[in-house]
Amino acid sequence: MIEEKNMSAAKNLEILFQDEHYVAINKPHGLLVHRSKIATNTDEFAVQQLRDQLGQHVHPAHRLDRKTSGVLLFALSKEALTAIRATFENEEMEKRYWSILRGYTEPEGLIDYPLTNDKGKNQEAQTAYTTLNQTEVEVPFGKHPTSRYSWVEARPKTGRMHQLRKHFAHIFHPIIGDRPHGCNKQNKLFLDRWQMGTMLLHAVALRFIHPITKTEISISAQPQSEFIRMIDVLKFDKNLLA
């Protein structure tokens, strides 16, 4: 199915965790976290939706790209926001992502490659990854009689903008559905053959020490239906979803 511009209007957001200080949702593909000057084709935003759903103000603690799904954390007060942002900034937040990439990746690796921010400044950036599963499907691509893909778990050690997208492109295993860092020919293949137009990147888990209660918090989110459909279509091992 082609990604819908508004996937959120029909039902409430899925709440994964909530206490008096924080709330986490499973953000759908295609939903912006908040209003943006570069996205004027929607009036649906996670901040406003969650505020209306809970009946109180919420403050995003971090960001996920519009086409990335998964765990998105909000603070319920400005004090809680300041506390949790320190956790992110001090790199004390364990983040795990699932993604489907072009080609066969190494069993595991560390991508240590500086990235340039929107102000032109170089920033160090590191992403560790583990290959969960690989598949080869009988779909010709270019000079190859088949197509190969990897399902990986990524653990970014830093939090730079588009870090995973840029890092996997850097090692020549771009994320399927990514624009502009991905492979346009692969993206067209997925759109033409399987009517799949979203980016196959999912924030599967966050783990951290609650900055107020000092307890360990572990939050996980099942992938959205389109990610699961592609796991099935590409014949990955679906048992890994459990």
From TrEMBL:
InterPro entries given in the database record:
PsdUridine_synth_cat_dom_sf (IPR020103), PsdUridine_synth_RluA-like_CS (IPR006224), PsdUridine_synth_RsuA/RluA (IPR006145), RluA_PseudoU_synthase (IPR050188)
> Does the record carry tRNA processing as a key word?
yes
- UniProt cross-references to Gene3D superfamilies, sorted A to Z: Pseudouridine synthase (3.30.2350.10)
The EC number(s) this enzyme carries: 5.4.99.26
SUPFAM superfamilies on file: Pseudouridine synthase
Q: Key word tRNA processing present in the record?
A: yes
Q: For the Pseudouridine synthase RsuA/RluA-like domain, which residue ranges apply?
A: 21-170
Q: What keywords were assigned to this record?
A: Isomerase, tRNA processing
Q: What class of enzyme is it?
A: isomerase
Q: Which reaction equation describes what this protein catalyses?
A: uridine(65) in tRNA = pseudouridine(65) in tRNA
Q: What does this protein do?
A: Responsible for synthesis of pseudouridine from uracil-65 in transfer RNAs.
Name of this chain's protein? tRNA pseudouridine synthase C
Which organism encodes this protein? Reichenbachiella carrageenanivorans
